[in-house]
Design brief:
With 458 residues, the protein is α+β, with helices and mostly antiparallel strands. It has 3 domains: 99 residues, no CATH class; 136 residues, Beta-Lactamase (2-Layer Sandwich); 159 residues, Reverse transcriptase/Diguanylate cyclase domain (Alpha-Beta Plaits, 2-Layer Sandwich), CATH 3.30.70.270. It is built from 14 helices and 14 strands. Strands 1, 2, 3, 4, 5, 6 and 7 form a 7-stranded antiparallel β-sheet that branches. A hairpin with a 7-residue loop joins strand 11 and strand 12. Helix 1 crosses helix 4, helix 4 packs across helix 5 and helix 10 packs across helix 11.
Length: 458
């Protein structure tokens, strides 16, 4: 029965082979290298797909087909069958080589998988670096061109709270003695907070979250159970920690480790911007009072005056003079006079708006440029300043009861459409100040021209 099956299979294969041009008489009679390789490949394919038994039957069928065209005793037939006998070891060896290659490839799969994972991690790292560089560029563009210190602080706080969604942000800057960090700006829930209202106004280096971050020059990130997340990021420039950015959010998912890492990446750009602003501020501010110098006043007033005239926006000017200041110097000495002038300047800075520009005009005279403030708005600012100074106790000695009282006179004017230059605004304000001093001092007087052009008279 098995023999009959073999004969049927051989007969079928012989018919298939005779129809295939690969085994035609012409092809079988050509024993070149190409023909032999084609035959080997055909047998290898059959062996791979159907096993050794079918491959052997196939080779026998080839021999039968070959014998149809050649006598069995011919030398060509002998050569072919000799080739048939020898070809199987070659095919077997070739199969072993292929199997070896397959095994080798399989053994390399773990290393290839590891290489792919490594490449993915490197790609992720590069992606994170690109994000960080983009954030640094964004910060540099947002605050890099700003030199005005107050404007710089506001821009940084706006960027941190708005772009990163942080609930509360505070900026501490290094003091002159380099041992303390003092609050210079704060923002919470979208609103600016006066530094005077912050509980921790000064922090010694090494103490608390801010002091520790400054001392160790590293970011500190803490998740407080049920109380949100707090972080402190050192702001460095020229190998010096010029300040610390303190962040807080009641939701730990908002201020998380990833966001803290991104903010730490931009902290360097913020530190450099703050240092540039500090250097600029040193050049344009008075060392004693912290107010802008006369040159800065002239430049900024010119800018704001042109802007007001072009866009028809309000602009007011305050001129403040300390009453009987010469008497203070003559009675208590110039060191006490300097203390009084410094404290008065600090009060004016605190009571002014963030957009206002307080400047030392000369001697004990101080001016405040109030952009986009009409007459009533400027009057409210001036009144706060006058009342605060009147109630302040100025110390002039080491004893607790060694205090003196000081008052100020303030003149106000506002831009009018018929004005041609900023000098006209200065002259109007100076006239109002003169009237305040002539009328008894310790009062706020609005210029006559400003009264005529405003329906609001305080």
């Amino acid at each position: 029965m098995f023999g009959i099956i073999i004969i049927i299979i051989l007969h079928f294969l012989r018919q298939k082979i005779n129809k295939n041009s690969l085994f035609s008489e012409k092809t079988l009679c050509r024993y070149d290298r190409t023909g032999i390789m084609r035959l080997i490949n055909a047998i290898k394919m059959l062996m791979k797909e159907h096993g050794w038994f079918c491959a052997g039957l196939f080779l026998m069928a080839v021999g039968i087909s070959f014998s149809k065209h050649m006598p069995v005793h011919s030398s060509s037939a002998v050569i072919f069958f000799g080739f048939a006998v020898s070809i199987f070891p070659c095919i077997a060896e070739s199969s072993k080589v292929e199997q070896s290659r397959t095994d080798s490839n399989n053994s390399q799969l773990p290393s290839l998988k590891f290489a792919v994972q490594k490449l993915y991690k490197e790609k992720q790292m590069l992606s994170d670096q690109v994000d960080e560089l983009s954030a640094v560029r964004e910060v540099s563009l947002a605050v890099g061109a700003i030199l005005d210190f107050s404007e710089m602080i506001r821009a940084i706080l706006d960027l941190v709270t708005t772009n990163y969604g942080i609930s509360k942000a505070l900026i501490y800057l290094q003091s002159d003695d380099e041992m303390w960090y003092e609050i210079v700006g704060a923002k919470a829930n979208g609103k600016d907070i006066s530094p005077a209202r912050v509980l921790q106004k000064r922090i010694k280096i090494g103490e608390g979250l801010v002091g520790k971050s400054a001392l160790e020059r590293r970011k500190i990130f803490e998740i407080r159970d049920g109380k949100g997340t707090v972080a402190a990021l050192p702001l460095s420039a020229k190998n010096r920690v010029v300040g610390v950015l303190k962040l807080f959010d009641p939701d730990s998912n908002v201020l998380n480790a990833e966001k803290c890492r991104k903010l730490h990446a931009v902290a360097g750009a913020i530190g450099i911007a703050l240092e540039n602003s500090r250097l600029y501020r040193m050049a344009v501010t008075d060392h004693l009072t912290g107010l802008y110098v006369r040159r800065h006043f002239e430049r900024r007033l010119e800018e704001e005056f042109k802007r007001s005239m072009r866009y028809r926006t309000a602009l007011s000017l305050l001129m403040v003079d300390i009453d009987y200041f010469k008497k203070v110097n003559d009675t208590y000495g110039h060191p006490t006079g300097d203390v009084v002038l410094k404290n008065v300047s600090a009060i004016i800075i605190e009571e002014s708006r963030g957009t206002d520009i307080p400047c030392r005009y000369g001697g004990e005279e101080i001016t405040v440029i109030c952009p986009e403030a009409d007459l009533s708005g400027a009057f409210r600012i001036a009144s706060r300043i006058r009342e605060r100074i009147e109630s302040y106790n100025f110390k002039y000695g080491d004893l607790p009861d060694e205090i003196l009282k000081v008052t100020v006179s303030i003149g106000i004017s506002t831009v009018k459409s018929e004005m041609k230059t900023r000098k006209e605004l200065i002259e109007e304000t100076d006239k109002a100040l003169y009237e305040a001093k002539r009328s008894g001092r310790n009062q706020v007087i609005v210029s006559e021209s400003a009264k005529c052009n405003s329906a609001v008279v305080a």
